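Predict the 3D structure for this chain.
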Amino acid sequence: MRFYNEHIYPWLVSSLGDPKPIQEVRQRIVPLAQGAVLEIGVGPGVNFAHYNPTTVSKVYALEPNRGMVRLAEQRRHETNLNIESLIFLANASRWKMLPLIPSSVPLRCARFQS
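Done. Predicted structure below.
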């Protein structure tokens, strides 16, 4: 199962997980991000190309799948963004903490409508 999770699944998501309707949503929504961004479930990093580096100071990229992290790291090097990978593994005893003070980050949610 580990081979599937770290190699096959990331390839499938990277190859088939970004159809045209989803691409259009990404192109419309992601450039609106500002300041420090926490992207939960960054996957293979397809959103990185859509962030505006003049308005986004840093992207914290959280992803539990090692194969996805590998693909996201490749995409990270194709941008001018300040991206920090936060690797959270379910079986890890330690993981990197976000440098946030309670109430220091305003919560903004995007609502998708069809």
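The radius of gyration is 15 Å.
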